[in-house]
Amino acid sequence: MKRDGKKIIFEKAGDLPPMAMSLGTTEYNETGSWRNERPVVDSSKCTGCGICWKFCPDISIKEDANGKASIDYFFCKGCGICAVECPVKAIEMKEEEK
Ligand code: SF4
Ligand code: SF4
Q: Which ligand 1 atom sits nearest the alpha carbon of residue 89?
């Protein structure tokens, strides 16, 4: 592991704590290309509570201009955790299109 300014560069898997494996790689790689299903937010149901953001392992959920959840499909791996955790079921997992 080495530092480049504020950036920490992990050189091998053994440098990482378990959760940092995801964080360290998704900053640079298009992990959204691995996805089989995509989360789709129903803005009419979303309350903007932020629970999905808290649980997303890839930091792929942002807040849109209306304070609702917005998915960053470049990084989202389609794990479905956000859909499970949303208390009002505002996120639906849909099969990825080719
Ligand atoms: S958990 Fe559900 S209601 Fe809360 S911000 Fe996410 S999508 Fe919206
Ligand atoms: S499907 Fe998984 S990776 Fe994608 S936004 Fe939801 S929790 Fe994050």
A: 2
Q: Residue 42: give its domain's CATH number.
A: 3.30.70.20
Residue 9 makes CB contacts below 8 A (sequence gap 6+) with 1, 2, 3
State the ligand closest to the CA atom of 61: 2
Q: Is this model's pTM higher than 0.85 or not?
A: no
Q: Kindly report, residue by residue over 82-92, the tens digit of the pLDDT.
A: 999 999 999 99
* Tally of domains in the chain: 1
Structure confidence by residue, pLDDT tens digits, 2-15: 666 655 565 665 65
> Which residue ranges have their beta carbon within 6 Å of ligand 1?
41, 46-52, 69, 86, 88, 90-91
60 ligand 2 Cβ < 6 A = yes
Domain that holds residue 89: 30-95
